[in-house]
## 1
Amino acid sequence: MLLLVLLRLLLLPRKWWSCSEEGDGKMKNVCRVLKRKDVGSLGIDAMIIFIAMILVAGVAATVFIKSAGQFELQSMKTAYDTMREVSAGIEVVNIEGRLGTFDNLSAPRVEYTTNMTKDNLSYLAIIVQTRPGSGSIDLNNTFVLLSNEDTKTLLRYRYNESWVFRNKADTTGDVFAVINNSAWEILDGESFGIIVLQDEDGSLKQFTPVLNRGDKAALLIRCNASATFNSMIPPRTNVWGQVKPESGSPGIISFTTPMSYPQALFIFDLQ
Protein backbone atom coordinates (compact mmCIF):
# COMPACT_ATOMS: atom_id res chain seq x y z
CA MET A 1 0.00 0.00 0.00
CA LEU A 2 2.87 2.39 0.83
CA LEU A 3 4.36 1.85 -2.62
CA LEU A 4 1.03 2.70 -4.29
CA VAL A 5 0.68 5.90 -2.27
CA LEU A 6 4.25 7.02 -3.09
CA LEU A 7 3.68 6.25 -6.75
CA ARG A 8 0.54 8.34 -6.76
CA LEU A 9 2.35 11.26 -5.14
CA LEU A 10 5.06 11.09 -7.78
CA LEU A 11 2.54 11.11 -10.59
CA LEU A 12 0.53 14.11 -9.33
CA PRO A 13 2.96 16.89 -10.46
CA ARG A 14 3.14 15.37 -13.93
CA LYS A 15 -0.68 15.51 -14.16
CA TRP A 16 -0.69 19.21 -13.19
CA TRP A 17 1.95 19.98 -15.81
CA SER A 18 0.06 18.17 -18.57
CA CYS A 19 -3.17 20.04 -17.75
CA SER A 20 -1.50 23.44 -17.78
CA GLU A 21 -0.07 22.88 -21.25
CA GLU A 22 -3.35 21.87 -22.82
CA GLY A 23 -5.85 24.31 -24.50
CA ASP A 24 -8.02 26.89 -22.75
CA GLY A 25 -11.64 27.55 -21.92
CA LYS A 26 -13.60 24.64 -20.58
CA MET A 27 -10.59 22.38 -20.64
CA LYS A 28 -8.72 24.75 -18.27
CA ASN A 29 -11.70 24.80 -15.93
CA VAL A 30 -11.69 20.98 -15.90
CA CYS A 31 -7.95 20.99 -15.05
CA ARG A 32 -8.55 23.46 -12.19
CA VAL A 33 -11.21 21.17 -10.74
CA LEU A 34 -8.92 18.15 -11.06
CA LYS A 35 -6.11 20.04 -9.35
CA ARG A 36 -8.33 20.99 -6.42
CA LYS A 37 -9.43 17.37 -6.06
CA ASP A 38 -5.87 16.12 -6.21
CA VAL A 39 -4.78 18.57 -3.51
CA GLY A 40 -7.37 17.06 -1.16
CA SER A 41 -6.27 13.60 -2.15
CA LEU A 42 -2.66 14.54 -1.42
CA GLY A 43 -3.56 15.42 2.17
CA ILE A 44 -5.24 12.03 2.65
CA ASP A 45 -2.21 10.24 1.17
CA ALA A 46 0.14 12.08 3.53
CA MET A 47 -2.02 11.09 6.49
CA ILE A 48 -1.98 7.47 5.35
CA ILE A 49 1.83 7.56 5.10
CA PHE A 50 2.08 9.13 8.56
CA ILE A 51 -0.17 6.47 10.12
CA ALA A 52 1.79 3.73 8.35
CA MET A 53 5.06 5.11 9.74
CA ILE A 54 3.59 5.13 13.25
CA LEU A 55 2.45 1.52 12.86
CA VAL A 56 5.85 0.42 11.59
CA ALA A 57 7.60 2.20 14.46
CA GLY A 58 5.24 0.57 16.96
CA VAL A 59 5.88 -2.91 15.56
CA ALA A 60 9.64 -2.31 15.60
CA ALA A 61 9.51 -1.04 19.19
CA THR A 62 7.53 -4.12 20.24
CA VAL A 63 10.12 -6.42 18.65
CA PHE A 64 12.99 -4.55 20.33
CA ILE A 65 11.32 -4.65 23.76
CA LYS A 66 10.54 -8.35 23.45
CA SER A 67 14.12 -9.12 22.36
CA ALA A 68 15.53 -7.09 25.26
CA GLY A 69 13.35 -9.03 27.71
CA GLN A 70 14.52 -12.36 26.29
CA PHE A 71 18.16 -11.27 26.47
CA GLU A 72 17.70 -10.23 30.10
CA LEU A 73 16.14 -13.57 31.06
CA GLN A 74 18.88 -15.48 29.24
CA SER A 75 21.62 -13.46 30.95
CA MET A 76 20.05 -14.05 34.38
CA LYS A 77 19.82 -17.80 33.70
CA THR A 78 23.44 -17.90 32.53
CA ALA A 79 24.59 -16.03 35.64
CA TYR A 80 22.62 -18.40 37.90
CA ASP A 81 24.03 -21.49 36.16
CA THR A 82 27.56 -20.10 36.45
CA MET A 83 27.18 -19.36 40.16
CA ARG A 84 25.72 -22.81 40.73
CA GLU A 85 28.52 -24.48 38.80
CA VAL A 86 31.17 -22.60 40.78
CA SER A 87 29.69 -22.86 44.28
CA ALA A 88 27.95 -26.23 44.06
CA GLY A 89 29.71 -29.56 43.98
CA ILE A 90 31.26 -32.28 46.07
CA GLU A 91 34.38 -32.17 48.24
CA VAL A 92 36.76 -34.99 49.09
CA VAL A 93 37.48 -34.67 52.82
CA ASN A 94 39.81 -37.62 53.30
CA ILE A 95 40.98 -40.86 51.68
CA GLU A 96 41.98 -43.92 53.71
CA GLY A 97 43.54 -47.13 52.41
CA ARG A 98 43.81 -50.60 53.92
CA LEU A 99 46.23 -53.41 53.18
CA GLY A 100 45.76 -57.08 52.43
CA THR A 101 42.76 -59.35 52.05
CA PHE A 102 40.31 -60.20 54.81
CA ASP A 103 39.26 -63.67 55.82
CA ASN A 104 36.60 -62.20 58.10
CA LEU A 105 35.91 -58.48 57.96
CA SER A 106 33.54 -58.65 60.92
CA ALA A 107 36.23 -60.02 63.23
CA PRO A 108 37.56 -57.83 66.07
CA ARG A 109 40.53 -55.57 65.38
CA VAL A 110 42.92 -57.77 67.38
CA GLU A 111 42.37 -60.67 64.97
CA TYR A 112 43.28 -58.73 61.87
CA THR A 113 46.98 -59.42 62.32
CA THR A 114 46.35 -63.15 62.05
CA ASN A 115 43.40 -63.22 59.67
CA MET A 116 44.87 -60.81 57.13
CA THR A 117 47.51 -61.50 54.53
CA LYS A 118 49.83 -58.50 54.60
CA ASP A 119 50.07 -57.21 51.03
CA ASN A 120 49.52 -54.06 48.98
CA LEU A 121 46.56 -51.67 49.34
CA SER A 122 43.31 -53.49 48.58
CA TYR A 123 40.60 -51.19 49.96
CA LEU A 124 39.91 -47.45 49.65
CA ALA A 125 37.47 -45.29 51.61
CA ILE A 126 36.86 -41.84 50.08
CA ILE A 127 35.13 -39.51 52.56
CA VAL A 128 32.96 -36.91 50.79
CA GLN A 129 30.66 -34.02 51.65
CA THR A 130 28.98 -31.15 49.80
CA ARG A 131 30.86 -27.92 49.14
CA PRO A 132 29.88 -24.79 51.11
CA GLY A 133 26.82 -23.23 49.46
CA SER A 134 26.07 -26.33 47.42
CA GLY A 135 22.64 -27.84 47.04
CA SER A 136 21.75 -31.51 47.34
CA ILE A 137 23.83 -34.08 45.44
CA ASP A 138 22.44 -37.42 44.36
CA LEU A 139 25.16 -40.05 44.77
CA ASN A 140 23.13 -42.29 42.48
CA ASN A 141 24.10 -39.95 39.62
CA THR A 142 27.67 -39.46 40.81
CA PHE A 143 30.60 -41.41 39.41
CA VAL A 144 34.20 -41.91 40.53
CA LEU A 145 36.93 -41.64 37.94
CA LEU A 146 40.25 -43.19 39.05
CA SER A 147 43.59 -43.53 37.29
CA ASN A 148 46.95 -44.97 38.19
CA GLU A 149 50.03 -45.25 36.03
CA ASP A 150 48.52 -48.10 33.98
CA THR A 151 44.71 -48.13 34.18
CA LYS A 152 41.78 -45.73 34.11
CA THR A 153 38.47 -46.88 35.59
CA LEU A 154 34.95 -45.48 35.99
CA LEU A 155 32.84 -46.54 38.99
CA ARG A 156 29.20 -45.96 39.87
CA TYR A 157 27.13 -46.67 42.96
CA ARG A 158 25.64 -50.17 42.99
CA TYR A 159 22.23 -49.27 44.41
CA ASN A 160 20.59 -52.65 43.74
CA GLU A 161 22.86 -54.45 46.23
CA SER A 162 21.82 -53.85 49.85
CA TRP A 163 25.06 -55.38 51.12
CA VAL A 164 27.17 -52.48 49.83
CA PHE A 165 25.14 -49.79 51.63
CA ARG A 166 25.19 -49.15 55.37
CA ASN A 167 23.35 -46.34 57.13
CA LYS A 168 24.57 -44.35 60.12
CA ALA A 169 23.20 -46.80 62.70
CA ASP A 170 25.33 -49.61 61.23
CA THR A 171 28.51 -47.54 60.97
CA THR A 172 30.48 -48.21 64.14
CA GLY A 173 34.09 -49.13 64.75
CA ASP A 174 36.35 -49.87 61.79
CA VAL A 175 34.94 -48.37 58.59
CA PHE A 176 36.45 -51.16 56.51
CA ALA A 177 34.77 -53.79 58.68
CA VAL A 178 31.23 -52.35 58.44
CA ILE A 179 30.45 -54.51 55.42
CA ASN A 180 31.41 -58.18 55.36
CA ASN A 181 33.62 -60.09 52.97
CA SER A 182 30.68 -61.10 50.74
CA ALA A 183 29.76 -57.44 50.30
CA TRP A 184 33.32 -56.52 49.42
CA GLU A 185 33.31 -59.25 46.77
CA ILE A 186 30.29 -57.58 45.14
CA LEU A 187 32.32 -54.43 44.49
CA ASP A 188 34.00 -55.02 41.15
CA GLY A 189 35.91 -52.72 38.83
CA GLU A 190 32.75 -50.79 37.91
CA SER A 191 31.05 -50.06 41.23
CA PHE A 192 31.52 -48.56 44.69
CA GLY A 193 29.66 -48.92 47.99
CA ILE A 194 28.40 -46.28 50.42
CA ILE A 195 28.73 -46.03 54.20
CA VAL A 196 26.80 -43.20 55.86
CA LEU A 197 28.91 -41.37 58.43
CA GLN A 198 26.70 -38.36 59.18
CA ASP A 199 23.09 -37.81 58.12
CA GLU A 200 20.77 -35.95 60.47
CA ASP A 201 17.85 -35.62 58.05
CA GLY A 202 17.91 -39.23 56.82
CA SER A 203 18.38 -38.25 53.17
CA LEU A 204 21.03 -40.91 52.50
CA LYS A 205 19.12 -44.09 51.68
CA GLN A 206 19.98 -47.19 49.68
CA PHE A 207 18.03 -46.33 46.52
CA THR A 208 18.13 -42.53 46.92
CA PRO A 209 21.44 -41.55 48.56
CA VAL A 210 21.12 -37.74 48.56
CA LEU A 211 24.01 -35.84 50.13
CA ASN A 212 22.87 -32.61 51.82
CA ARG A 213 24.62 -29.89 53.76
CA GLY A 214 26.32 -31.39 56.83
CA ASP A 215 26.14 -34.97 55.54
CA LYS A 216 29.22 -37.14 55.19
CA ALA A 217 29.59 -40.48 53.46
CA ALA A 218 32.40 -42.92 52.66
CA LEU A 219 32.66 -44.32 49.13
CA LEU A 220 34.14 -47.82 49.33
CA ILE A 221 36.33 -49.16 46.51
CA ARG A 222 38.00 -52.55 46.25
CA CYS A 223 41.29 -52.93 44.37
CA ASN A 224 42.55 -56.37 43.34
CA ALA A 225 42.83 -58.68 40.35
CA SER A 226 39.02 -58.85 39.90
CA ALA A 227 38.20 -55.25 40.80
CA THR A 228 39.51 -51.69 40.32
CA PHE A 229 42.91 -51.41 38.58
CA ASN A 230 42.88 -55.24 38.17
CA SER A 231 45.45 -55.39 40.98
CA MET A 232 46.24 -54.13 44.46
CA ILE A 233 47.98 -50.77 44.75
CA PRO A 234 51.72 -51.18 45.39
CA PRO A 235 54.00 -48.62 47.11
CA ARG A 236 55.16 -45.49 45.26
CA THR A 237 52.08 -45.43 43.02
CA ASN A 238 50.46 -42.21 41.83
CA VAL A 239 46.66 -42.31 41.91
CA TRP A 240 44.48 -39.44 40.71
CA GLY A 241 40.90 -38.85 39.66
CA GLN A 242 37.61 -37.15 40.47
CA VAL A 243 34.34 -37.70 42.30
CA LYS A 244 32.08 -36.15 39.68
CA PRO A 245 28.50 -35.15 40.66
CA GLU A 246 25.66 -34.55 38.21
CA SER A 247 26.27 -30.79 38.38
CA GLY A 248 28.82 -28.62 40.10
CA SER A 249 32.53 -28.92 40.77
CA PRO A 250 34.04 -32.40 41.21
CA GLY A 251 35.95 -33.62 44.24
CA ILE A 252 39.64 -34.04 43.47
CA ILE A 253 41.52 -37.28 44.18
CA SER A 254 45.31 -37.10 44.13
CA PHE A 255 47.71 -39.10 46.27
CA THR A 256 50.86 -41.18 46.13
CA THR A 257 51.10 -44.38 48.16
CA PRO A 258 53.95 -44.59 50.71
CA MET A 259 57.43 -45.71 49.71
CA SER A 260 56.81 -48.87 51.75
CA TYR A 261 54.08 -50.41 53.92
CA PRO A 262 55.41 -50.90 57.48
CA GLN A 263 54.57 -54.25 59.08
CA ALA A 264 52.95 -52.59 62.09
CA LEU A 265 50.39 -50.62 60.03
CA PHE A 266 47.32 -51.72 58.12
CA ILE A 267 45.50 -48.43 57.53
CA PHE A 268 47.11 -45.45 55.76
CA ASP A 269 45.99 -41.86 55.44
CA LEU A 270 46.45 -41.19 51.73
CA GLN A 271 44.87 -37.76 51.25
Note: The radius of gyration is 40 Å.
## 2
Amino acid sequence: MLIHNEILSRLKSRDKDVIELIYKCLFPSIKNWISLNSGTLEDAEDVFHDSLLCIITKLDSETVQLTCDFSTYFISICRKKWLQTLYKRRKMAMLANDSFQTDLSDMYELAETEEVEAEKYYAFIEALNGLDPKSHAVMEASLNGKSNDKIAAEMGFINSQAVADKKKNCKKKLIRILAANQKV
Protein backbone atom coordinates (compact mmCIF):
# COMPACT_ATOMS: atom_id res chain seq x y z
CA MET A 1 0.00 0.00 0.00
CA LEU A 2 1.05 3.62 -0.42
CA ILE A 3 2.79 5.55 2.32
CA HIS A 4 0.34 7.50 4.46
CA ASN A 5 1.46 10.99 3.35
CA GLU A 6 0.85 10.06 -0.27
CA ILE A 7 -2.56 8.63 0.58
CA LEU A 8 -3.52 11.85 2.37
CA SER A 9 -2.42 14.08 -0.49
CA ARG A 10 -4.24 11.93 -3.06
CA LEU A 11 -7.36 11.87 -0.88
CA LYS A 12 -7.24 15.65 -0.64
CA SER A 13 -7.26 15.83 -4.44
CA ARG A 14 -10.15 13.30 -4.53
CA ASP A 15 -8.12 10.69 -6.44
CA LYS A 16 -10.59 7.93 -7.32
CA ASP A 17 -7.86 5.27 -7.54
CA VAL A 18 -6.69 5.84 -3.95
CA ILE A 19 -10.29 5.76 -2.70
CA GLU A 20 -10.80 2.41 -4.47
CA LEU A 21 -7.51 1.15 -3.03
CA ILE A 22 -8.58 2.13 0.50
CA TYR A 23 -11.93 0.43 -0.03
CA LYS A 24 -10.30 -2.73 -1.39
CA CYS A 25 -7.74 -2.96 1.42
CA LEU A 26 -9.69 -1.76 4.46
CA PHE A 27 -13.39 -2.35 3.88
CA PRO A 28 -13.24 -6.13 4.52
CA SER A 29 -11.79 -5.63 8.00
CA ILE A 30 -14.25 -2.80 8.78
CA LYS A 31 -17.17 -4.93 7.58
CA ASN A 32 -15.98 -7.91 9.65
CA TRP A 33 -15.51 -5.83 12.81
CA ILE A 34 -18.91 -4.14 12.50
CA SER A 35 -20.69 -7.44 11.80
CA LEU A 36 -19.05 -8.93 14.90
CA ASN A 37 -20.38 -5.95 16.86
CA SER A 38 -24.10 -6.12 16.00
CA GLY A 39 -23.91 -4.43 12.61
CA THR A 40 -24.99 -5.17 9.06
CA LEU A 41 -23.36 -4.77 5.65
CA GLU A 42 -25.26 -1.49 5.22
CA ASP A 43 -23.99 -0.28 8.59
CA ALA A 44 -20.43 -1.09 7.55
CA GLU A 45 -20.84 0.77 4.25
CA ASP A 46 -22.30 3.82 6.03
CA VAL A 47 -19.52 3.90 8.61
CA PHE A 48 -16.85 3.43 5.94
CA HIS A 49 -18.21 6.27 3.80
CA ASP A 50 -18.77 8.57 6.79
CA SER A 51 -15.20 7.97 7.97
CA LEU A 52 -13.78 8.63 4.52
CA LEU A 53 -15.77 11.88 4.28
CA CYS A 54 -14.60 12.85 7.75
CA ILE A 55 -10.95 12.47 6.70
CA ILE A 56 -11.45 14.34 3.42
CA THR A 57 -13.26 17.18 5.22
CA LYS A 58 -10.48 17.38 7.77
CA LEU A 59 -7.87 17.44 4.99
CA ASP A 60 -9.70 20.36 3.35
CA SER A 61 -9.76 22.43 6.53
CA GLU A 62 -6.36 21.72 8.07
CA THR A 63 -3.05 19.98 7.71
CA VAL A 64 -3.15 16.41 8.96
CA GLN A 65 0.03 14.82 10.28
CA LEU A 66 -0.25 11.12 10.99
CA THR A 67 1.87 9.55 13.69
CA CYS A 68 0.68 6.06 12.72
CA ASP A 69 -0.08 4.06 9.61
CA PHE A 70 -3.03 5.32 7.53
CA SER A 71 -4.88 2.03 7.96
CA THR A 72 -4.62 2.30 11.75
CA TYR A 73 -5.89 5.88 11.60
CA PHE A 74 -8.77 5.01 9.30
CA ILE A 75 -9.84 1.92 11.22
CA SER A 76 -9.82 3.85 14.50
CA ILE A 77 -12.12 6.49 12.99
CA CYS A 78 -14.45 3.75 11.72
CA ARG A 79 -14.54 2.07 15.11
CA LYS A 80 -15.28 5.33 16.87
CA LYS A 81 -18.09 6.12 14.43
CA TRP A 82 -19.58 2.65 14.90
CA LEU A 83 -19.45 2.89 18.67
CA GLN A 84 -21.15 6.29 18.46
CA THR A 85 -23.84 4.74 16.26
CA LEU A 86 -24.39 1.91 18.74
CA TYR A 87 -24.61 4.40 21.60
CA LYS A 88 -27.21 6.47 19.75
CA ARG A 89 -29.24 3.36 18.91
CA ARG A 90 -29.13 2.19 22.52
CA LYS A 91 -30.13 5.63 23.76
CA MET A 92 -33.05 5.77 21.30
CA ALA A 93 -34.16 2.27 22.31
CA MET A 94 -34.15 3.31 25.96
CA LEU A 95 -36.21 6.41 25.19
CA ALA A 96 -38.69 4.38 23.16
CA ASN A 97 -38.98 1.76 25.89
CA ASP A 98 -42.07 2.13 28.08
CA SER A 99 -40.10 0.95 31.08
CA PHE A 100 -37.58 3.79 30.82
CA GLN A 101 -38.24 4.90 34.40
CA THR A 102 -37.70 1.36 35.64
CA ASP A 103 -34.46 1.13 33.64
CA LEU A 104 -33.35 4.45 35.07
CA SER A 105 -34.07 3.41 38.65
CA ASP A 106 -32.27 0.10 38.00
CA MET A 107 -29.26 2.06 36.74
CA TYR A 108 -29.24 4.22 39.89
CA GLU A 109 -29.51 1.13 42.08
CA LEU A 110 -26.65 -0.52 40.18
CA ALA A 111 -24.55 2.63 40.52
CA GLU A 112 -25.17 2.74 44.27
CA THR A 113 -24.23 -0.94 44.58
CA GLU A 114 -21.05 -0.38 42.60
CA GLU A 115 -20.21 2.64 44.75
CA VAL A 116 -20.61 0.57 47.93
CA GLU A 117 -18.46 -2.20 46.45
CA ALA A 118 -15.80 0.34 45.46
CA GLU A 119 -15.78 1.74 49.00
CA LYS A 120 -15.31 -1.78 50.41
CA TYR A 121 -12.52 -2.46 47.95
CA TYR A 122 -10.66 0.74 48.84
CA ALA A 123 -11.14 0.05 52.56
CA PHE A 124 -9.63 -3.41 52.05
CA ILE A 125 -6.67 -1.98 50.10
CA GLU A 126 -6.14 0.62 52.83
CA ALA A 127 -6.19 -2.13 55.48
CA LEU A 128 -3.84 -4.29 53.40
CA ASN A 129 -1.42 -1.37 53.16
CA GLY A 130 -1.61 -1.07 56.96
CA LEU A 131 0.00 -4.48 57.42
CA ASP A 132 3.72 -4.89 58.06
CA PRO A 133 5.76 -5.47 54.86
CA LYS A 134 6.12 -9.26 55.28
CA SER A 135 2.39 -9.73 56.00
CA HIS A 136 1.53 -7.48 53.07
CA ALA A 137 3.78 -9.50 50.75
CA VAL A 138 2.28 -12.81 51.91
CA MET A 139 -1.29 -11.59 51.43
CA GLU A 140 -0.53 -10.05 48.05
CA ALA A 141 1.12 -13.26 46.84
CA SER A 142 -1.86 -15.25 48.09
CA LEU A 143 -4.34 -12.89 46.41
CA ASN A 144 -2.38 -13.28 43.18
CA GLY A 145 -2.98 -17.03 43.32
CA LYS A 146 0.37 -18.29 44.53
CA SER A 147 0.29 -21.54 46.48
CA ASN A 148 1.49 -21.77 50.07
CA ASP A 149 4.41 -23.94 48.91
CA LYS A 150 5.52 -21.33 46.38
CA ILE A 151 5.16 -18.50 48.92
CA ALA A 152 7.20 -20.53 51.44
CA ALA A 153 9.97 -21.09 48.91
CA GLU A 154 10.06 -17.47 47.72
CA MET A 155 9.81 -15.79 51.14
CA GLY A 156 11.92 -18.10 53.30
CA PHE A 157 9.21 -19.78 55.38
CA ILE A 158 9.99 -23.21 56.84
CA ASN A 159 7.05 -24.87 55.09
CA SER A 160 3.59 -24.29 53.66
CA GLN A 161 1.97 -24.68 57.09
CA ALA A 162 3.98 -21.69 58.34
CA VAL A 163 2.59 -19.69 55.41
CA ALA A 164 -0.96 -20.84 56.22
CA ASP A 165 -0.49 -19.71 59.83
CA LYS A 166 0.90 -16.35 58.67
CA LYS A 167 -2.09 -15.86 56.33
CA LYS A 168 -4.49 -16.69 59.14
CA ASN A 169 -2.85 -14.09 61.39
CA CYS A 170 -2.85 -11.55 58.54
CA LYS A 171 -6.57 -12.07 57.97
CA LYS A 172 -7.23 -11.48 61.66
CA LYS A 173 -5.19 -8.24 61.48
CA LEU A 174 -7.12 -7.14 58.38
CA ILE A 175 -10.44 -7.75 60.13
CA ARG A 176 -9.28 -5.74 63.15
CA ILE A 177 -8.10 -2.86 60.96
CA LEU A 178 -11.35 -2.84 58.96
CA ALA A 179 -13.44 -2.99 62.13
CA ALA A 180 -11.44 -0.14 63.65
CA ASN A 181 -12.00 1.97 60.53
CA GLN A 182 -15.70 0.98 60.55
CA LYS A 183 -15.67 0.58 56.78
CA VAL A 184 -17.30 -2.82 56.63
Note: Helices lie at 4-12, 16-36, 41-61, 70-96, 100-129, 133-143, 148-155, 160-181.
